[in-house]
Amino acid sequence: MKALITGSSSGIGRDMARYLASKNIDLILVARRKDMLEKLQKELKVNVKIIALDLGIEKNVYKLYEDVKNDDIDILINNAGFGLFGDFNETDLDTELKMIDINVKTPHILTKLFLKDFIKKDKGYILNVASSAGFMAGPHLNTYYATKNYLLKLTMAINEELRVKKSNVKICALCPGPVNTEFNKVAHGKFNVKGASSEYVAKYAIDKMFKGKMIIIPTIKMKLAIFGIRFIPYRLQLIIAYHIQTRKNKS
Predict the structure, then answer these.
(1) Of 65, 148, 204, 208, which is the active-site residue?
(2) Which of 55, 59, 86, 102 is the most exposed place for a label (fewest CB within 10 A)?
């Protein structure tokens, strides 16, 4: 088998690469930081192709697909993404548009293109890394929450289309809570709750992906929180989210 992972130079993407390699699955790793990809490539004991590319540029997304479409890929993991803390009227518009490109347009395009190939073969896995943020609106982290809502709901809709067609292609969304990665540094904020380890989240996600789980939530705490959200009125959800995000101090 062979897997393509975007955003694979660090965090969850890197640890997914490590776990897949431990299962003897070859890899195509994509990220902007070539030096970190090369370091990971040397570490892994499977065939690893690295592609240093900025997927925030739309033409690069299509280029990536054209470069690998004949590589007999079995697994697509859309992991690239980032967030930005701050009130909507104060955050940088260009950064937000870049976020929408990477968090929404990139996985949308890659999912569309690879899904067509997988359906023709009637096999394959697509894992979209969303977030527990995909179940709510997020004051102070507004655009990020919106992008993860998009990715989660898109994944769920495609999952149902494939189920009705009795397709052997599987698509799922990973929806963790806080994870110990570079997210906080990039987003200019700080979580005040302990995050799960990226190693645990990566392994849990891959295992559930192979089992065909549609929505993957790694920890009991987040499962209970997301289950409880459905019983809370929207206004109260917003009040709770506002106070949680306010506790994230600017770094």
Answers:
(1) 148
(2) 59
